[in-house]
Amino acid sequence: MMRSKFLSLLIRAPSVCRSMSTATKLTTIDVNDKTGIATLTLNRSPINALNVELLQDLNESIKEIEDNKSRGLILTSSNDKVFSAGLDLNEMYRPDKDRARLLWIKLQDVWLALYSCDLPTAAAINGYAPAGGCLLATVCEYRVMLPKCRIGFNETQLGIVPPIFCMFNFLNVLPRRVAERSLSQGQMFTTEQALQIGLVDDVVSSKGEALDKCTKFIDTFAKVNPLARSLAKQQFRAADLQRFQTERAKDLESFLAFINHPQMQEGLGIYLNSLKKKQQLNAV
Ligand SMILES: CCCC/C=C\CC(=O)SCCNC(=O)CCNC(=O)[C@H](O)C(C)(C)COP(=O)(O)OP(=O)(O)OC[C@H]1O[C@@H](n2cnc3c(N)ncnc32)[C@H](O)[C@@H]1OP(=O)(O)O
After folding, report:
1. Whose CA is nearest to atom 54 of ligand 1?
2. Weakly modelled stretches of the chain, pLDDT under 50
3. Please, which domain of life does this record's source organism belong to (predicted)?
4. pLDDT of residue 25
5. 64 catalytic, yes or no?
6. The three-state (H, E, C) secondary structure of the chain, written as one string
7. How far is residue 222 CA from its own chain's centroid?
8. For a disulfide at 93, which of 75, 101, 163, 268, Cβ 3.0-4.6 Å?
């Protein structure tokens, strides 16, 4: 009797979120004790620009979530307007050589960790997701987005060649023709356009709803054998992962050569300035 009462209490217990990590500052992890799903939140003010430290924290958090045998990983942002502004342009403009190298290696590591993640992954895109932000969203297996945002790889608009891993992400999500065109044009899509072309799976009106949708997606795997699911995912991604490993070193050198080019530096300087000017204009 006592035992069944205890069990029914356990069953009815409200879901409790527990923070798994205190070591990191730029990301937080909350594990829902009821669902076993970990929410990984980008938390670098003001716009989650991906610098060396944020990428490092992301890598550590992904590993922590995998090691703790969570049932799934949801990626989101603590900012209610920006999911991630992409790579921190300050790391690329007049760069410190060692940090620039580290930046790219860490970005490659994050992509690799998520692309080959054993767990089901989902992105609750609660704000703008340009470039590196789009990379983080599209490396996941499911995406839900809030209205009035934008998402896409705008690299070519900035004179940057998108690396192959952007292509892998888009080819997993979009028809080849759409992927090629949008990557080569540097297109940014509104939430509505993103839904229409299949770049996001769903649109919801609040972050809470977005997290619920992601949870539901991860729950669709509840009755599937975890090893079989994980190996099936790896099988689909094996050729991309193989090509990535073959080209990884070359990809790093291309990035470094590219950002050290005087023309590229001039362009980055103008772009960074225009972003700052935008704020000055808003203040007037
Ligand atoms: C992915 C594969 C790798 C390929 C290589 C590189 C790709 C990249 O990721 S390059 C980065 C591309 N990112 C962008 O083009 C985004 C530019 N930013 C924006 O469009 C807007 O800032 C954004 C919509 C994200 C947010 O808009 P707001 O909320 O209105 O904020 P502000 O624009 O006022 O920005 C606040 C503050 O941040 C500075 N900022 C913006 N983006 C970046 C960035 N990517 N890196 C560094 N700093 C950034 C902006 O200048 C403002 O600075 P202050 O004026 O000093 O406050």
Report:
1. 276
2. 1-14, 22, 24, 281, 283-284
3. Eukaryota
4. 83
5. no
6. CHHHHHHHHHHHCCCCEEECCCCCCCEEEEEECCCCEEEEEECCCCCCCECHHHHHHHHHHHHHHHHCCCCEEEEEECCCCECCCCECHHHHCCCCHHHHHHHHHHHHHHHHHHHCCCCCEEEEECCEEECHHHHHHHCCCEEEECCCCEEECCHHHHCCCCCHHHHHHHHHHCCHHHHHHHHHHCCCEEHHHHHHHCCCCEECCCHHHHHHHHHHHHHCCCCCCHHHHHHHHHHHHHHHHHHHHHHHHHHHHHHHHHHCCHHHHHHHHHHHHHHHHHHHHHHC
7. 23
8. 268
Ligand 1 pocket residues where CB is under 6 Å:
46-47, 49, 81-82, 85-90, 128, 130-132, 135, 154-155, 160, 162-163, 166, 275-276, 278-279
What pLDDT is attached to residue 21? 53
The answer to whether the CB of 37 falls within 8 A of the CB of 30 is no
Q: How far apart are CA 204 and CA 147, in angstroms?
A: 7
pLDDT digits 0-9 by tens, 3-12: 333 333 333 3
pLDDT at 13: 41
Domains of the chain: residue spans and CATH: 15-283 (3.90.226.10)
pTM of the entire predicted model: 0.92
Q: Which two tokens stand for residue 106?
A: 């860490």
State the catalytic residue, choosing from 86, 132, 133, 186.
132
Nearest to 134 by CA among 115, 156, 151, 112: 151
Strand-pair category, 121-125 with 189-190 = unpaired
Nearest CA to ligand 1 atom 23: 85
Q: How many residues does the chain have?
A: 284
Q: What is the pLDDT of residues 102-128, one digit of tens each?
A: 999 999 999 999 999 999 999 999 999
Give me 14's structure tokens: 């409200």
Decide: 92 and 266 in contact? Cβ < 8 Å: no
